[in-house]
C-alpha cells in the first residue's frame, strides 16, 4: 500500500471532519488499493483526530491485516468495492439524511427532479430524476450488507440507510465527496421545502 492512499484518505477524513460530520464517532471511510486490499477507518475512535491509529489496512474481504479494529461497517465498503470500479466509499450520519430516510423510508426511495444539484449525479436533462434508494437498518451487518447489494449498480452511487446514515461511493475521492455534498444539499433543501410548505398551508 502506498503512502498516497493513506494521504488521500486523510484528506477525505479531514474535509468531512472540518464540517463536523463524525458526531459521536459515527461514520467511516474506505479506499481501495491497486491490489484490491482496502484502507478503512478504525472503529469507534474520535474521527476528528488523525494519527497512526486512524486507519486500518484490511484484505479485499475485510479481514484486518494489522493489529487495529476496522470499522464495524467495513462489510459495506467491501461489497461496494467488490462490485464496482469505485475507489472511495463514504458512510456519514447527519441529522438531515436520517430525517429524510425516516420520512421517505416507507416509500423505499426519495426522488429529486427539477433541482439543479442532481447534475452532480450526471443528470443533465430537464426531466431527469435522481432516485435515492432507502434501505432498512438491521443491526446485523451481514443483513445490512445484503440489503445494500442490489443497489450497488454503478461505479458511483448513493444509498440511504434508514435512521442511520448515507453510503456514497465514487471512482475518485473527489467524485465521492461531490456526490455526498450534493446529496446533503438536496436532503436539507427537501426538509426546508417541506417545512415551508407546511407553514404556508397553516397560514392559509
Ligand atoms: C457510534 S455510531 C455507531 C456505529 C456506526 O454506525 C458508525 O458509522 C461508526 O462505526 P465504526 O465502527 O466505523 O466506528
Ligand atoms: Zn454508521
TrEMBL record:
It is an enzyme of class 4 (lyase). Catalyzes the dehydration of methylthioribulose-1-phosphate (MTRu-1-P) into 2,3-diketo-5-methylthiopentyl-1-phosphate (DK-MTP-1-P). Its cofactor is Zn(2+). The lineage of its organism: Bacteria, Bacillati, Bacillota, Bacilli, Bacillales. Coiled coil: none annotated. Its EC number is 4.2.1.109. It comes from Macrococcus hajekii. Pathway: Amino-acid biosynthesis; L-methionine biosynthesis via salvage pathway; L-methionine from S-methyl-5-thio-alpha-D-ribose 1-phosphate: step 2/6. NCBIfam families: salvage_mtnB. The keyword Zinc applies. It catalyses: 5-(methylsulfanyl)-D-ribulose 1-phosphate = 5-methylsulfanyl-2,3-dioxopentyl phosphate + H2O. GO terms for biological process: L-methionine salvage from methylthioadenosine. This is Methylthioribulose-1-phosphate dehydratase.
Amino acid at each position: 500500500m502506498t503512502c498516497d492512499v493513506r494521504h488521500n484518505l486523510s484528506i477525505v477524513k479531514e474535509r468531512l471532519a472540518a464540517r463536523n460530520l463524525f458526531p459521536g464517532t459515527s461514520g467511516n471511510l474506505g479506499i481501495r488499493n491497486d491490489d484490491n486490499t482496502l484502507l478503512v477507518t478504525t472503529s469507534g475512535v474520535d474521527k476528528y483526530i488523525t494519527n497512526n491509529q486512524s486507519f486500518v489496512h484490511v484484505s479485499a474481504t475485510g479481514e484486518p491485516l494489522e493489529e487495529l479494529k476496522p470499522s464495524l461497517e467495513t462489510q459495506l465498503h467491501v461489497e461496494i468495492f467488490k462490485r464496482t470500479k469505485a475507489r472511495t466509499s463514504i458512510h456519514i450520519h447527519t441529522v438531515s439524511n436520517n430525517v429524510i430516510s425516516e420520512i421517505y423510508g416507507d416509500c423505499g426511495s426519495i426522488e429529486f427532479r427539477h433541482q439543479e444539484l442532481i447534475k452532480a449525479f450526471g443528470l443533465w436533462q430537464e426531466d431527469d430524476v435522481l432516485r435515492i434508494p432507502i434501505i432498512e437498518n438491521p443491526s446485523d451487518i451481514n443483513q445490512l450488507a445484503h440489503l445494500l447489494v442490489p443497489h450497488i449498480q454503478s461505479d458511483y452511487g448513493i444509498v440511504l440507510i434508514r435512521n442511520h446514515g448515507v453510503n456514497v461511493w465514487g471512482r475518485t475521492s473527489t467524485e465521492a465527496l461531490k456526490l455526498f455534498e450534493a446529496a446533503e444539499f438536496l436532503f436539507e433543501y427537501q426538509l426546508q421545502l417541506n417545512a415551508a410548505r407546511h407553514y404556508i398551508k397553516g397560514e392559509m
